[in-house]
């Protein structure tokens, strides 16, 4: 990395071991040493705004997206009496739909139980 004038940012560098729960105990505690910096494994990492966990269940990502969506929905509900229908629709699409659509391809193979919370956001969104 030094030859390319690159430096590792210790605060933003994460390591995650992806393995089924039965094999994760066999892997043990891995320490990675890069240019004198020791990187320890994390249970969750963020890459391009998607939170991945070591089981690839994406529960942390879904929780984060749901929390953020309901925060924006709550604020839009407060303003709703003073907004026209078209303005409310624009705000909902700008803040919530874009949040739910971002990187939704990674959610493709998840079971429906995992996606129910996102569906709940969409159902609530349609009522406003």
From TrEMBL:
Q: Which domain of life is it from?
A: Eukaryota
Q: What is the protein name stated in its UniProt record?
A: Uncharacterized protein LOC121506616, partial
Record organism = Xyrichtys novacula
